[in-house]
Amino acid sequence: MTTFPAQGPASEPPPARPGRKLGPIAASVGTLHRAWLEPTRERYLSSGQTLSDLSFHVLLAKSKLSELLRGIGHYPRWEVIHRLAAVLDIPSWPLYRLWRQAALDAGKSRDWVDRSTEGTTAVATARSGPPMEHGALRLTVEEGYLAYAGAFLTGDARDAAVEDAFAILWLSFDEALASPDIRRYAWDLLRTTVKARADYRDERPVLGEAAFDTVTLRQESSAEGQAAQLAESLELFTAISRLPDTQLDVMVLRHMCGYPPEKVSDLLGVPLATVLSAERHACRFLADTIEPPATEGPTP
Questions:
Q1: What is the pTM of this model?
Q2: Which residues fall within 8 angstroms of residue 294, CB to CB, at 6 or more apart?
Q3: Final residue of a domain: which of 125, 146, 177?
């Protein structure tokens, strides 16, 4: 099992700021926008600075900064976010990637994105490199992340979801190190980014596309056998999508990606006993939910 550096003592909370308290993120803010806004807000709240301090350096009115940090009003231009990142010492590459993804998701054109980054693109896209621990974690989990994301997404969408998860992890790495288990923290980010891009049916993520590349199907040699197995798999995947998050993750990793329980434990950042328990409960639910295949009786 991969180990990571021991976490230091929790830092003291910053002193209370003068003036009005920053309001919450607006409920209308989309998932991709929230992906970079939440860690940016956290960095501001832990910095000890006030909106007046930021206003002086970012060259934006306090009211506009408050709106920006709540996700209210027009989607911000990169030149403003770039100045904010410099003041708060936020790494620009992952922030730019997430900002750009959210801009396109918000309906901004690529031309608008390009014009918004004039004069700052070179700095934004210069990769200074994530923390060493970030790179070590990525080496150990990226293959599993791609396999899990592939159960819900295909092609570029799969790769983008995983890349976004690592970008968010980079932005919030201090919080990740302070969490009980960095692997669990990172997995929660991955699940969120994957589910944000997945198709949904009855408010549950759709797993049907992954039926064409499961371990079971790869073991079927005949077209007839694959067709029968596909029908059963689609029913199974529909039932799996109704499971609670941890049970769903375990079943996808175990039975669609083919990972042993120990590897699933490492990926999720939970004890092996939790994986085995989640699998047992999931299997019981599926056994009660899925009707057994009909068998042909004797000819009358």
A1: 0.80
A2: none
A3: 125
Residues 164 and 110 placed together within one structural domain of the fold? no
Please tell me whether residues 200 and 180 are part of one structural domain.
yes
Dist. CA 187–CA 181, nearest whole Å: 10
110 within domain boundaries: yes
Report the C-alpha gap between 227 and 89 in whole angstroms: 55
The pLDDT tens digits for 171-186 are: 999 899 999 999 999 9
State pLDDT tens for residues 227-263: 455 456 667 778 888 899 999 999 999 988 899 999 9
> Do 41 and 65 belong to one domain?
yes
45 and 139 co-located in one domain: no
What distances in angstroms separate CA 235 from CA 102, 206, 230, 290, one per listed residue? Answer: 34, 11, 9, 7
DSSP secondary structure code for residue 204 in this structure: E
CA distances to 88, 105, 189 from 32, rounded to whole Å, are 21, 7, 12
Question: Is 280 among the domain residues?
Answer: yes
Do residues 92 and 171 make contact, with C-beta atoms less than 8 angstroms apart?
Answer: no
